[in-house]
Write a structure and sequence with these properties.
Length: 84
């Protein structure tokens, strides 16, 4: 499954393990920037290793580097089941 901007994922490791997030930017072949956003899932915008993410087969339509407010609107509009 392609890791791309807008891909919904679950974090596997770290203090935010088992929480859901969305990829907002690709850093390089090993790292991406993810965001929950924090008020929805508790995941702060931060760099994350791809090995620490489990991708869903869901992708939302957001631009690269989208703000947390834009991201929150897109997530709520998409009505993703099980995302919180």
């Amino acid at each position: 499954m392609a890791m791309e901007v807008g891909r919904v994922c679950t974090k596997l490791l770290g203090r935010e393990a088992d929480k859901n997030c969305v990829i907002v930017e690709i850093v390089n072949k090993n790292f991406v920037v993810v965001s929950g956003p924090k008020e929805l899932t508790g995941v702060k915008r931060r760099r994350c290793n791809l090995k620490h993410l489990e991708p869903w087969d869901v992708k939302i339509n957001v631009e690269k580097g989208a703000s947390d407010d834009t991201l929150k609107e897109a997530i709520l509009k998409a009505k993703i089941e099980g995302y919180s």
